[in-house]
């Protein structure tokens, strides 16, 4: 079985004067398909759900198709 894994996380609100641009994402989390699995395997925490998905898929012998992972906070 193949399973695609990726995430996009962004919290926003109208009170922040900061702009969430590509640089903001790179400062928080920005992983392309070539680095997503190795960076998130076994991870837990704020963005740790990817680690859980990867660990579960690997424990069942599923082929993981990594997509993209990006996150940014507003302020």
Can you describe this structure?
The protein is an alpha+beta fold. It contains three helices and three strands; from the N terminus they run E-H-E-H-H-E. Strands 1-3-2 form a three-stranded mixed β-sheet. The longest helix is centred in the C-terminal third of the chain and has 11 residues, at 49-59. The radius of gyration is 14 Å and the shape is elongated.
Query: Quick one: biggest sheet?
Result: 3 strands, mixed
**Mean pLDDT over all positions:** 84
The portion of residues assigned to helices is 25-40%
Q: Work out the radius of gyration.
A: 14 Å
- Principal-axis shape equals elongated
Low-confidence segments = none
User: Can you count the helices?
Assistant: 3
Number of strands: 3
Strand content: 25-35%
The largest sheet has its strands arranged as: 1-3-2
Coarse structural class: alpha+beta
- Note the gap between the termini: 40 Å
**Would you list the SSEs in sequence order as H and E?**
EHEHHE
List key phrases describing it.
3-stranded mixed sheet; 75 residues; alpha+beta; elongated; 3 strands
Question: What would you say about this model in short?
Answer:
31% of the residues lie in helices and 29% in strands. It has helices at 22-28, 36-40, 49-59; strands spanning 2-10, 29-31, 63-72.
């Amino acid at each position: 079985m193949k399973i695609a894994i990726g995430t996009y996380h962004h919290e926003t609100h109208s009170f922040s004067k900061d702009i969430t641009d590509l640089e903001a994402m790179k400062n928080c989390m920005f992983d392309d398909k070539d680095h997503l699995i190795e960076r998130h395997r076994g991870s837990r925490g704020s963005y740790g759900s990817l680690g859980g998905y990867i660990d579960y898929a690997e424990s069942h012998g599923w082929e993981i198709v990594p997509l993209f992972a990006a996150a940014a906070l507003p302020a």
